[in-house]
């Protein structure tokens, strides 16, 4: 039966477990502290930090449907592109000059598309969903190319001028305002995503991911839950696309490309699915690897990223995690042994 129809004692146990899951850990506080300190630590790297911020939000949107609901997608760039072009057109034609309001409108536009297409995505298994989502993204790309008088075609939207955020903070050439703006939006949306996955709604999504038939048998409305999370994820992706346009003052057909969706899956594989910080960490690692390898070997940086991905899959993330813990645990064991030996020596006459 649903959690709200359970006896009070059992319901209290569920709420207590959700409360324990939603408690903030020291590692989470450290992560966001480091993200905030990046404003001061890397004053000459604001542009790549901005890319990491909106990419992390984009990956977070995919993790909500793939990691928690088990919905695979090869066309998640469709919502990213709708958000990007909506924000660009609103700014270009001075329909909505305020970036935050335009951001929300762009997210809602992607959300509407997500709700409409969710009924197509729900009809079928994983392979069908892959093809449907990919087809939607390719269709939107061709529509954007067809109506080039509106979208700019292959040249993209030209002449976008972004107004100050909230009328106070102007976008600067070095990207400091863009990074802080994207980081604040990422943090707020992360708080919302964290609340979603640690709620009874989030638990029902995990049940659907593990076994849809069993979830339906115990009374969970599977299709409605999947439609809801797919729509929410589309909103997140639309926000990421709008942030991309607002921070770069550019929107082109590339936002709908298959490569963008494929890179998104790659980032999520690197960071790990079903764990909100996995997408964030994967975005940081992917962008830093891309930046370092492109500087080191501009022609073959994709080869090295592919090699790292193959090694990660073959070795396994769990084994790598044990290896990273081996050093600190070994040092702790040595220190404890020396401390015990010193105490024993003091007790010996």
Please describe what this structure looks like.
With 349 residues, the chain is an all-alpha fold. It folds into two domains: 3-301; 316-349. The protein contains 15 helices and no strands. Helix 3 (46-66) runs parallel beside helix 8, helix 3 runs antiparallel to helix 11 and helix 4 runs antiparallel to helix 5 (99-121). It is globular, with a radius of gyration of 23 Å. It starts with 7 loop residues before the first helix and ends with a helix. The model is unreliable at 8-14 (pLDDT under 50).
| Strand tally | 0
**How many domains, as an integer?**
2
Spans of at least 5 consecutive residues whose pLDDT stays below 50 are 8-14
- Global Rg: 23 Å
The string of secondary-structure elements, in order, is HHHHHHHHHHHHHHH
Report mean pLDDT, rounded to a whole number. Answer: 81
Overall geometry? globular
Secondary structure category: mainly alpha
Strand content: under 5%
The proportion of residues forming helix, as a percent range, comes to over 70%
Helix count, DSSP H or I runs of 4 or more residues: 15
Question: In this structure, how is the largest beta sheet organized?
Answer: none
Distance between the termini: 68 Å
Short summary:
The chain is mainly alpha-helical and 349 residues long. It is 75% helix and 0% strand.
């Amino acid at each position: 039966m649903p959690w709200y129809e359970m006896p009070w004692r059992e319901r209290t146990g569920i709420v207590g477990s959700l409360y324990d899951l939603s408690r903030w850990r020291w590692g989470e506080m450290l992560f966001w502290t480091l993200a905030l300190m990046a404003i001061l630590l890397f004053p000459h790297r604001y542009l790549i930090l901005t890319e990491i911020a909106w990419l992390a939000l984009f990956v977070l949107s995919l993790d909500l449907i793939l990691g928690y609901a088990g919905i695979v997608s090869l066309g998640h760039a469709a919502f990213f592109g709708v958000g990007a072009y909506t924000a660009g057109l609103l700014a270009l034609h001075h329909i909505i000059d305020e970036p935050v309001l335009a951001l929300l409108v762009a997210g809602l536009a992607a959300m509407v598309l997500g709700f409409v297409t969710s009924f197509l995505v729900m009809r079928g298994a994983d392979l069908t969903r892959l093809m449907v989502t990919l087809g939607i993204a390719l269709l939107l790309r061709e529509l954007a190319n067809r109506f080039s008088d509106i979208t700019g075609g292959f040249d993209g939207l030209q002449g976008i001028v972004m107004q100050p955020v909230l009328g106070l903070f102007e976008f600067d050439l070095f990207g400091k305002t863009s990074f802080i703006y994207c980081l604040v939006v990422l943090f707020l949306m992360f708080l919302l995503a964290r609340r979603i996955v640690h709620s009874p709604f989030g638990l029902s999504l995990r049940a659907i991911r593990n076994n849809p038939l069993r979830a339906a048998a115990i009374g969970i409305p599977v299709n409605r839950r999947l439609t809801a999370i797919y729509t929410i994820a589309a909103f997140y992706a639309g926000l990421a696309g709008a942030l991309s346009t607002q921070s770069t003052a550019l929107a082109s057909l590339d936002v709908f490309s298959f490569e963008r969706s494929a890179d998104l899956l790659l980032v999520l594989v690197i960071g790990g699915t079903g764990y909100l910080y996995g997408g964030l960490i994967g975005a940081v690692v992917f962008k830093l690897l891309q930046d370092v390898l492109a500087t080191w070997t501009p022609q073959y940086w994709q080869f090295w990223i592919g090699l790292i991905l193959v090694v990660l899959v073959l070795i396994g993330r769990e084994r790598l995690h044990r290896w990273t813990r081996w050093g600190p645990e070994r040092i702790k064991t040595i220190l404890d042994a020396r401390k015990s030996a010193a105490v024993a020596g003091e007790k010996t006459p």
